[in-house]
Here is the input.
Amino acid sequence: MDERNLKTRRIAFAAIIAALYVVLTAIASAAGLSSGAIQFRISEALCILPAFTPAAVPGLAIGCLLSNLLAGGIALDVAFGTLATLLGAIGTYLLRKNRWLAGVCPIAANMLIVPWVLRVGYGIPTPYWTLALTVGIGEFVCAGIGGQLLYSLIRRRKLDQFIK
Here is the structure.
């Protein structure tokens, strides 16, 4: 595949990943699960995708940005929530050779950043470390377990050959 086709393909993958992230977050939001002290964003399972393609890094960041804007998040949440997803995606890409370490990156980024946003931006009085724990549990379930299930599905179906 020549360089131009590869670039076009990666832009398309990034757009698809962003759209999937928005749709999955909207579904979780409709169920009341995508924001607050306890978050179960099923879209976070997609955070394993940078292990397969660098196109997932901007796709996830744009998807998170759009999701937070569409959900009516405050500016601090939109900015730092997106930053957490971007840092997690970059870490996943950098550690892509080890699926287990790669899968920890979005969990860690969100556990460190989102509780601060909840306290400072939304005024949730719960202690930072308690919020880190609740956000971490949601991330572990969605990004950790969900991400590893998605990783296994992609490998088992040999879909990784199409995601470059």
